[in-house]
Amino acid sequence: MDLKQLRTFNAVMDSGRVSAAARRVGLTQPAVSKIVQGLEADVGVPLFRREKGKLTPTPEAYYLRNIATNVIEQINDAKQFLRDYGQQRAGDLKVLSIPGPSLFFLPDIISRFVTAENAVNVSLLSWSTAQVVNWIGNHQNGIGLAEWFEPHEAVKLHTIAMPCYCALAAGHRLAHKSVLTPQDLADEQLSLIITDHALNGDIQRAFADAGCSAHVRMHADLFVPMFTIIARTGIVGIVDPINKRNHELYSAGRSDIVFRPFQPTIRLRLSVISPAHQPLSYLASQFMDELVAELEQMT
After folding, report:
1. Listed residue (113, 132, 146) closest to 289, CA to CA
2. Degrees (nearest 5) of the Cα angle 124, 290, 120?
Protein backbone atom coordinates (compact mmCIF):
# COMPACT_ATOMS: atom_id res chain seq x y z
CA MET A 1 0.00 0.00 0.00
CA ASP A 2 1.10 3.54 -0.66
CA LEU A 3 -0.27 6.95 0.29
CA LYS A 4 -1.87 7.52 -3.12
CA GLN A 5 -3.80 4.26 -2.79
CA LEU A 6 -4.99 5.13 0.70
CA ARG A 7 -6.12 8.65 -0.25
CA THR A 8 -8.00 7.30 -3.25
CA PHE A 9 -9.54 4.50 -1.19
CA ASN A 10 -10.77 7.02 1.41
CA ALA A 11 -12.26 9.20 -1.32
CA VAL A 12 -14.24 6.20 -2.64
CA MET A 13 -15.36 5.34 0.90
CA ASP A 14 -16.60 8.89 1.42
CA SER A 15 -18.42 9.27 -1.91
CA GLY A 16 -19.54 5.72 -2.69
CA ARG A 17 -18.97 6.36 -6.41
CA VAL A 18 -15.89 6.21 -8.58
CA SER A 19 -16.85 9.36 -10.49
CA ALA A 20 -17.13 11.49 -7.33
CA ALA A 21 -13.94 10.03 -5.90
CA ALA A 22 -12.10 10.78 -9.15
CA ARG A 23 -13.09 14.46 -8.96
CA ARG A 24 -11.99 14.66 -5.32
CA VAL A 25 -8.50 13.26 -5.90
CA GLY A 26 -7.98 14.76 -9.35
CA LEU A 27 -7.76 11.49 -11.29
CA THR A 28 -9.74 9.90 -14.10
CA GLN A 29 -12.42 7.31 -13.34
CA PRO A 30 -10.42 4.47 -14.94
CA ALA A 31 -7.40 5.47 -12.82
CA VAL A 32 -9.45 5.35 -9.61
CA SER A 33 -10.94 1.98 -10.54
CA LYS A 34 -7.47 0.60 -11.27
CA ILE A 35 -6.13 1.87 -7.92
CA VAL A 36 -9.03 0.27 -5.99
CA GLN A 37 -8.58 -3.02 -7.82
CA GLY A 38 -4.85 -2.96 -7.15
CA LEU A 39 -5.48 -2.30 -3.46
CA GLU A 40 -7.90 -5.24 -3.29
CA ALA A 41 -5.27 -7.41 -4.93
CA ASP A 42 -2.68 -6.25 -2.39
CA VAL A 43 -4.82 -7.04 0.66
CA GLY A 44 -6.29 -10.24 -0.84
CA VAL A 45 -9.96 -9.57 -0.03
CA PRO A 46 -12.78 -7.61 -1.74
CA LEU A 47 -13.22 -4.12 -0.30
CA PHE A 48 -16.40 -3.21 -2.19
CA ARG A 49 -19.47 -4.88 -3.65
CA ARG A 50 -20.34 -3.40 -7.03
CA GLU A 51 -24.06 -2.96 -7.57
CA LYS A 52 -25.58 -0.75 -10.30
CA GLY A 53 -22.65 1.66 -10.44
CA LYS A 54 -22.47 2.05 -6.70
CA LEU A 55 -19.73 0.67 -4.47
CA THR A 56 -20.81 -0.77 -1.13
CA PRO A 57 -17.95 -1.17 1.40
CA THR A 58 -17.33 -4.56 2.94
CA PRO A 59 -16.51 -4.96 6.67
CA GLU A 60 -12.86 -5.27 5.67
CA ALA A 61 -13.11 -1.86 3.98
CA TYR A 62 -14.25 -0.20 7.20
CA TYR A 63 -11.35 -1.77 9.05
CA LEU A 64 -8.90 -0.49 6.43
CA ARG A 65 -10.59 2.92 6.48
CA ASN A 66 -9.68 3.41 10.14
CA ILE A 67 -6.07 2.52 9.50
CA ALA A 68 -5.86 4.64 6.33
CA THR A 69 -7.30 7.67 8.11
CA ASN A 70 -4.76 7.38 10.93
CA VAL A 71 -1.86 7.01 8.50
CA ILE A 72 -2.94 10.02 6.44
CA GLU A 73 -3.43 12.16 9.53
CA GLN A 74 0.00 11.23 10.88
CA ILE A 75 1.65 12.05 7.57
CA ASN A 76 -0.20 15.38 7.37
CA ASP A 77 0.85 16.18 10.94
CA ALA A 78 4.45 15.29 10.16
CA LYS A 79 4.46 17.49 7.06
CA GLN A 80 3.03 20.40 9.02
CA PHE A 81 5.53 19.93 11.85
CA LEU A 82 8.48 19.85 9.47
CA ARG A 83 7.13 22.88 7.63
CA ASP A 84 6.84 24.74 10.94
CA TYR A 85 10.27 23.48 11.96
CA GLY A 86 11.78 24.80 8.75
CA GLN A 87 10.17 28.18 9.39
CA GLN A 88 11.40 28.22 13.01
CA ARG A 89 7.89 27.81 14.39
CA ALA A 90 8.53 24.46 16.14
CA GLY A 91 11.32 22.36 17.60
CA ASP A 92 13.63 21.99 20.60
CA LEU A 93 16.63 24.24 21.18
CA LYS A 94 19.25 23.41 23.84
CA VAL A 95 21.77 26.14 24.64
CA LEU A 96 24.63 25.60 27.10
CA SER A 97 26.83 28.51 28.12
CA ILE A 98 29.25 29.91 30.64
CA PRO A 99 27.29 32.12 33.08
CA GLY A 100 28.03 35.64 31.79
CA PRO A 101 26.36 35.37 28.36
CA SER A 102 23.36 33.61 29.95
CA LEU A 103 22.31 36.74 31.82
CA PHE A 104 21.10 39.01 29.00
CA PHE A 105 23.08 38.37 25.81
CA LEU A 106 21.81 34.87 25.02
CA PRO A 107 18.21 35.48 26.18
CA ASP A 108 18.08 38.40 23.74
CA ILE A 109 18.99 36.12 20.83
CA ILE A 110 16.74 33.28 22.03
CA SER A 111 13.78 35.65 22.23
CA ARG A 112 13.95 36.05 18.44
CA PHE A 113 13.15 32.34 18.10
CA VAL A 114 10.42 32.08 20.74
CA THR A 115 7.03 33.71 20.32
CA ALA A 116 3.54 33.18 21.71
CA GLU A 117 2.51 31.83 18.31
CA ASN A 118 5.17 29.16 17.79
CA ALA A 119 6.06 25.87 19.46
CA VAL A 120 9.81 26.32 19.98
CA ASN A 121 10.94 24.83 23.31
CA VAL A 122 14.21 26.09 24.81
CA SER A 123 16.63 24.91 27.50
CA LEU A 124 19.24 27.48 28.58
CA LEU A 125 21.81 26.09 31.03
CA SER A 126 24.75 27.92 32.67
CA TRP A 127 27.78 25.68 33.14
CA SER A 128 31.56 25.87 33.14
CA THR A 129 33.49 25.56 29.90
CA ALA A 130 34.49 21.98 30.74
CA GLN A 131 30.89 21.00 31.44
CA VAL A 132 29.65 22.57 28.20
CA VAL A 133 32.29 20.77 26.14
CA ASN A 134 31.74 17.44 27.87
CA TRP A 135 27.96 17.56 27.44
CA ILE A 136 28.02 18.38 23.74
CA GLY A 137 30.90 16.00 23.09
CA ASN A 138 29.26 13.09 24.91
CA HIS A 139 25.61 13.67 23.94
CA GLN A 140 26.21 15.17 20.48
CA ASN A 141 23.40 17.58 21.24
CA GLY A 142 23.02 21.31 21.81
CA ILE A 143 24.77 24.58 20.97
CA GLY A 144 27.43 25.78 23.39
CA LEU A 145 29.13 29.08 24.15
CA ALA A 146 32.29 28.85 26.22
CA GLU A 147 35.74 30.30 26.61
CA TRP A 148 38.35 29.09 24.17
CA PHE A 149 39.90 25.71 24.89
CA GLU A 150 42.09 23.20 23.12
CA PRO A 151 40.31 21.49 20.19
CA HIS A 152 38.31 18.39 21.10
CA GLU A 153 37.60 15.67 18.53
CA ALA A 154 33.95 15.31 19.61
CA VAL A 155 33.01 18.95 19.01
CA LYS A 156 33.34 21.65 16.39
CA LEU A 157 34.58 25.11 17.33
CA HIS A 158 33.97 28.55 15.88
CA THR A 159 36.26 30.82 17.90
CA ILE A 160 35.86 34.59 17.91
CA ALA A 161 38.18 37.14 19.57
CA MET A 162 36.55 40.36 20.78
CA PRO A 163 38.21 43.49 22.26
CA CYS A 164 37.69 44.60 25.86
CA TYR A 165 36.46 48.01 27.04
CA CYS A 166 36.72 50.34 29.99
CA ALA A 167 33.45 50.95 31.80
CA LEU A 168 33.16 54.17 33.79
CA ALA A 169 30.51 56.47 35.18
CA ALA A 170 29.22 58.97 32.65
CA GLY A 171 30.48 61.85 34.81
CA HIS A 172 33.97 60.40 35.33
CA ARG A 173 36.87 62.75 34.55
CA LEU A 174 38.10 60.35 31.82
CA ALA A 175 34.72 59.92 30.13
CA HIS A 176 35.58 62.54 27.50
CA LYS A 177 38.44 60.45 26.12
CA SER A 178 37.77 58.23 23.09
CA VAL A 179 40.34 55.59 24.14
CA LEU A 180 41.83 54.71 27.51
CA THR A 181 45.32 53.35 28.13
CA PRO A 182 47.19 52.01 31.18
CA GLN A 183 48.79 55.44 31.56
CA ASP A 184 45.32 57.04 31.74
CA LEU A 185 44.27 54.55 34.39
CA ALA A 186 47.49 54.53 36.44
CA ASP A 187 45.92 56.58 39.26
CA GLU A 188 42.44 55.02 39.05
CA GLN A 189 40.89 52.35 41.20
CA LEU A 190 39.95 49.40 39.01
CA SER A 191 37.47 46.54 38.89
CA LEU A 192 38.69 43.43 37.04
CA ILE A 193 37.65 39.87 36.35
CA ILE A 194 38.84 37.37 38.98
CA THR A 195 42.58 36.69 39.18
CA ASP A 196 42.49 33.13 37.80
CA HIS A 197 40.88 34.30 34.55
CA ALA A 198 43.15 34.73 31.51
CA LEU A 199 41.90 38.28 30.91
CA ASN A 200 43.14 39.36 34.33
CA GLY A 201 46.67 38.26 33.47
CA ASP A 202 46.49 39.99 30.07
CA ILE A 203 45.39 43.25 31.69
CA GLN A 204 48.10 43.09 34.36
CA ARG A 205 50.74 42.50 31.65
CA ALA A 206 49.47 45.49 29.67
CA PHE A 207 49.95 47.73 32.70
CA ALA A 208 53.38 46.27 33.42
CA ASP A 209 54.48 46.72 29.79
CA ALA A 210 53.40 50.37 30.01
CA GLY A 211 55.42 50.87 33.21
CA CYS A 212 52.25 51.32 35.30
CA SER A 213 50.62 49.56 38.18
CA ALA A 214 47.00 48.40 38.14
CA HIS A 215 45.34 49.46 41.39
CA VAL A 216 42.64 46.82 41.67
CA ARG A 217 39.92 47.58 44.18
CA MET A 218 37.40 44.92 43.18
CA HIS A 219 37.29 41.49 41.52
CA ALA A 220 34.21 39.71 40.17
CA ASP A 221 33.48 36.50 38.30
CA LEU A 222 30.17 37.92 37.01
CA PHE A 223 30.68 41.51 35.99
CA VAL A 224 27.07 42.64 35.65
CA PRO A 225 26.67 43.27 39.42
CA MET A 226 29.71 45.57 39.29
CA PHE A 227 28.02 48.04 36.95
CA THR A 228 25.94 49.48 39.80
CA ILE A 229 29.12 50.17 41.79
CA ILE A 230 30.88 51.63 38.75
CA ALA A 231 27.95 53.97 38.08
CA ARG A 232 27.99 55.26 41.68
CA THR A 233 31.73 55.52 42.29
CA GLY A 234 34.90 56.53 40.55
CA ILE A 235 35.95 52.92 40.02
CA VAL A 236 36.77 51.98 36.41
CA GLY A 237 36.00 48.48 35.14
CA ILE A 238 37.87 46.72 32.34
CA VAL A 239 35.26 44.42 30.89
CA ASP A 240 34.75 42.00 28.03
CA PRO A 241 32.35 42.86 25.17
CA ILE A 242 29.73 40.33 26.31
CA ASN A 243 29.31 42.21 29.57
CA LYS A 244 29.23 45.48 27.66
CA ARG A 245 26.36 44.03 25.65
CA ASN A 246 24.73 42.72 28.84
CA HIS A 247 24.71 46.27 30.22
CA GLU A 248 23.27 47.72 27.03
CA LEU A 249 20.43 45.20 27.18
CA TYR A 250 19.49 45.47 30.85
CA SER A 251 20.01 49.23 31.18
CA ALA A 252 17.50 49.89 28.36
CA GLY A 253 19.41 52.87 27.03
CA ARG A 254 20.28 54.56 30.34
CA SER A 255 23.49 56.59 30.08
CA ASP A 256 24.85 56.17 33.63
CA ILE A 257 27.86 54.23 32.30
CA VAL A 258 29.96 54.85 29.20
CA PHE A 259 32.34 52.43 27.50
CA ARG A 260 35.66 53.31 25.92
CA PRO A 261 38.07 51.00 24.05
CA PHE A 262 41.06 49.88 26.07
CA GLN A 263 44.46 50.02 24.39
CA PRO A 264 46.58 48.02 23.91
CA THR A 265 43.81 45.76 22.66
CA ILE A 266 43.02 42.83 24.93
CA ARG A 267 40.70 40.22 23.48
CA LEU A 268 38.29 37.74 24.97
CA ARG A 269 38.15 34.54 22.95
CA LEU A 270 34.85 32.68 22.98
CA SER A 271 34.04 29.48 21.13
CA VAL A 272 30.66 28.55 19.69
CA ILE A 273 30.49 24.78 20.12
CA SER A 274 28.48 22.21 18.18
CA PRO A 275 28.56 18.41 17.86
CA ALA A 276 31.23 16.98 15.58
CA HIS A 277 29.46 13.73 14.71
CA GLN A 278 25.79 14.67 14.61
CA PRO A 279 24.23 17.23 12.22
CA LEU A 280 22.36 20.12 13.79
CA SER A 281 18.64 20.46 13.40
CA TYR A 282 17.51 23.25 11.13
CA LEU A 283 16.40 25.28 14.16
CA ALA A 284 19.71 24.82 15.98
CA SER A 285 21.63 25.67 12.82
CA GLN A 286 19.69 28.91 12.40
CA PHE A 287 20.28 29.80 16.05
CA MET A 288 24.00 29.14 15.74
CA ASP A 289 24.24 31.35 12.66
CA GLU A 290 22.50 34.14 14.56
CA LEU A 291 24.79 33.69 17.57
CA VAL A 292 27.95 33.75 15.46
CA ALA A 293 26.75 36.86 13.61
CA GLU A 294 26.12 38.67 16.91
CA LEU A 295 29.57 37.77 18.22
CA GLU A 296 31.32 38.75 15.01
CA GLN A 297 29.71 42.19 15.19
CA MET A 298 31.70 42.73 18.39
CA THR A 299 35.12 42.07 16.85
Report:
1. 113
2. 50
d(CA 146, CA 95): 11
Domains of the chain are 3-86 (1.10.10.10), 92-161+269-296 (3.40.190.10), 165-265 (3.40.190.10)
The kind and range of the H/E element at 79 are helix 59-86
Give the whole-angstrom CA distance, residue 288 versus residue 284. 6
For residues 92 and 84, give the distance between their C-alpha atoms in angstroms, rounded to a whole number: 12
245 band by pLDDT with thresholds 50, 70 and 90? very high
Query: What is the mean predicted confidence (pLDDT) over 174-187?
Result: 97
Query: What are 105-123's pLDDT values in tens digits?
Result: 999 999 998 876 667 889 9
Buried b (16+ CB within 10 A) or exposed e, 100-123: bbbbbbbbebbeebeeeeeebebe
| Among 96, 36, 106, residue whose Cα is nearest residue 64 | 36
Alpha-carbon gap, residue 66 to 118, rounded angstroms: 31
Whether the predicted model's global pTM rises above the 0.85 cut: no
